[in-house]
Write a structure and sequence with these properties.
2 domains; five-stranded antiparallel β-sheet; about 200 residues; about 0% helix; mainly beta
């Protein structure tokens, strides 16, 4: 093909230089691929003197941004009500990006001083996500390093709320709650462990 021959180009999808002249038998143009969310292909057509020829090129979608779930803050909301009672103890605020990820479990320890509550004084340890219960351990046999599976927490902005069901036998006993960990978060900005103040059931 003689040098200086004009070749016309089209592309779909995407953009391409509309024409170029040959040098040493070849014409060079720049193809600009579109942004795609799934892998696809583009058709590129070159024509000279009304005679077309086509080829396809593959376009690979960029990886989706990583989802994150950050633990932002720990707030002590504990009180000392007359028992039996369900006692809100702590809130953990969490924010998500790109849909967030699931928070799958949490570990807590129930303590107190100088007269800590015993397992027999605790009817349940509850965890809520945006005021909906997502985890519970009934009648814990131990109050140290209690693992609580979570179902339905995370995957968006929200708050984990920790509650204790204290029985009437907890009267005069001391209690606090330490959140040791939350499994599933990608960033712990608190950081855990974090504990509430010591309370005494009247």
């Amino acid at each position: 093909m003689p040098d200086g021959t004009t070749i016309n180009f089209t592309a779909s999808p995407g953009g391409i230089d509309p024409f170029a002249a040959t040098t040493d038998g070849a014409a060079t143009v720049t193809f600009t691929a579109p942004t795609v969310t799934v892998n696809t292909s583009a058709s590129i057509t070159a024509s000279v003197a009304g005679v077309p020829g086509s080829t396809t090129v593959s376009i690979t979608a960029a990886p989706a941004p990583a989802a994150t779930q950050t633990l932002d803050s720990f707030t002590d909301i504990s009180t000392a009500p007359a028992v039996p009672a369900t006692v809100p103890m702590a809130n953990i605020a969490s924010t998500a990006t790109n849909g967030g990820v699931a928070l799958t479990s949490t570990q807590v320890t129930i303590g107190g001083a100088p007269t800590p509550v015993l397992p027999a004084d605790v009817g349940a340890i509850r965890v809520l996500w945006n005021a909906v219960q997502v985890g519970i351990v009934n009648s814990p046999v131990s109050l140290a390093n209690v693992n609580i599976p979570l179902v339905g927490a995370g995957l968006g902005n929200g708050t984990l709320t920790y509650e204790l069901d204290l029985l009437g036998t907890a009267t005069g006993m001391d209690f606090d709650l330490t959140v040791n960990s939350v499994t599933g978060n990608t960033t712990d900005s608190i950081p855990l462990p974090a504990a509430t103040v010591n309370q005494t059931a009247p």
